[in-house]
């Protein structure tokens, strides 16, 4: 049995790496075919970050400006956050990048947490999504936590394992980082949003389940359905097919929906995604509709309404409650496992489809989390196995 499970796991891992390698090669070919971008000359808008611009973020900082920051006009800070130590570890340093738009006071700024996917660095994620450019335009800060290669060789978050040795510790570290930034820089604690891509979307879902009082809304791009995966092997199966169990039942097993405070969610997925099947997006929409008390335990609509439209190659489905859009699903035609409306030159990002960052912010900007007590919730089971 162990041998067959190992063969299944290795087969799934090989297919995932093959799909990602193919996309990387295609991205590099497109990049080589495109004319080089002109290098911006130094100006007041494109300036080198100085130590006095930001309060010190941690014990170690780097203020080198990568391309991710160079194309935007604000300040990029690289630092480490000392998060709570997980069982079996001596330290838990979470690397991150913080971007602050130019010409704005830090106090009262909204904060967007961006969680990268497997085989991505935060510099690539910031550059490929272009979220920092949107931050310049609309005035919000962006933080990019980065998974360590010492924790996972491909920088994957352990979204499927809520134990304190894996995904649970990673979620707690992100929350600890958010709390520290809100306290240090006086960001608006009622307007903190979390978004992720692929495995990062999986961790964003876990954060929404475990720490709903910390976030005003969640954005999931190319993410897996919640609740079924408990090991790397099952996680691969969920990615390929979606959850085999009823998605509403999975949510009810994870949290006490009656006590849960709700979590507005926007879900973006490519219809041609062969790494994380589009069925996952459909199931996530149902799960967050349940978390927001729009659906009953049988999955039937109990309040509100559902509106759907198709325009310019995008199917949009909105779950409306009290005249307010609470859950939005966007399925993008011909988009693979890549960030919609991103930079083709960066792997796992595509110019196809609408600008996903704009979709997320347009949804986030109307959401606010008023401080309240943490809800009662059922603990998520620990993983039955560990990823190899």
What does this structure look like?
- The chain is of the alpha/beta class.
- The protein has a single domain, classed as Alpha/Beta hydrolase fold, catalytic domain (Rossmann fold, 3-Layer(aba) Sandwich), CATH 3.40.50.1820.
- Helix content is 32%, strand content 18%.
- The protein contains ten helices and eleven strands.
- It has an eleven-stranded mixed β-sheet with strand order 1-2-3-5-4-6-7-8-11-10-9, with helices on both faces.
- A hairpin with a 2-residue loop joins strand 9 (305-311) and strand 10 (314-321).
- Helix 1 (2-33) crosses helix 7, helix 5 packs across helix 6 and helix 8 crosses helix 9.
- The longest helix is centred in the first third of the chain and has 32 residues, at 2-33.
Q: CATH fold name, please?
A: Rossmann fold
Q: Strand count, sense and closure of the main sheet?
A: 11 strands, mixed
User: Helix content range of the residues, please?
Assistant: 25-40%
The level 1 CATH classification is Alpha Beta
Give the averaged pLDDT, no decimals.
Answer: 83
Distance between the termini: 16 Å
Helical run tally: 10
Reading the helices and strands in chain order gives: HEHEEEHHEHEHEHHEHEEEH
| Portion in beta strands | 15-25%
What's the Cα radius of gyration? 20 Å
Stretches where pLDDT falls below 50 for ≥5 residues?
Answer: 34-65, 373-388
Say which CATH homologous superfamily is assigned: Alpha/Beta hydrolase fold, catalytic domain
């Amino acid at each position: 049995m162990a041998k067959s499970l190992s063969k299944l796991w290795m087969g799934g891992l090989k297919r995932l790496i093959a799909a990602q390698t193919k996309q990387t090669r295609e991205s590099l070919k497109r990049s080589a075919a495109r004319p080089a971008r002109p290098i911006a000359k130094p100006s007041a808008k494109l300036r080198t970050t100085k130590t006095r611009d930001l309060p010190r973020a941690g014990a170690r900082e780097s203020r080198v400006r990568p391309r991710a920051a160079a194309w935007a006009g604000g300040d990029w800070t690289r630092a480490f956050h000392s998060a709570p130590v997980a069982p079996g570890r001596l330290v838990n340093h979470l690397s991150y990048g913080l971007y602050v738009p130019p010409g704005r006071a830090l106090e009262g700024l909204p904060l967007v947490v961006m969680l990268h996917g497997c085989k991505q660095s935060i510099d690539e994620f910031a550059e490929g999504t272009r979220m920092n450019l949107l931050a310049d335009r609309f005035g919000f800060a962006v933080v990019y936590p980065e998974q360590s290669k010492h924790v996972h060789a491909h920088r994957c978050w352990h979204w499927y394992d809520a134990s304190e040795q894996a995904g649970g510790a990673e979620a707690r570290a992100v929350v600890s980082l958010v709390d520290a930034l809100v306290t240090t820089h006086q960001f608006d604690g009622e307007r903190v949003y979390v978004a992720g891509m692929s495995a990062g979307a999986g961790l964003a879902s876990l954060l929404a389940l475990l720490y709903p009082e910390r976030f005003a809304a969640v954005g999931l791009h190319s993410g897996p359905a919640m609740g079924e995966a408990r090991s790397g092997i099952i996680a691969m199966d969920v990615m390929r097919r979606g959850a085999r169990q009823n998605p509403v039942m999975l949510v009810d097993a994870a949290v006490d929906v009656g006590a849960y405070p709700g979590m507005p969610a926007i879900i973006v997925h490519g219809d041609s995604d062969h790494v994380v099947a589009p069925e996952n997006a459909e199931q996530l929409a149902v799960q967050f509709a349940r978390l927001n008390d729009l659906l009953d335990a049988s999955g039937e609509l109990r309040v509100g309404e559902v509106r759907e439209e198709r325009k310019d190659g995008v199917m949009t489905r909105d779950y409306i409650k009290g005249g307010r859009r609470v859950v939005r699903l966007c399925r993008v035609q011909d988009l693979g496992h890549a960030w919609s409306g991103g930079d083709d030159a960066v792997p796992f990002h595509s110019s196809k489809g609408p600008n996903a960052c704009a979709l997320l912010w347009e949804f986030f900007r109307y959401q606010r989390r008023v401080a309240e007590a943490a809800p009662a919730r059922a603990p998520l089971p620990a993983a039955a196995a560990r990823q190899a």
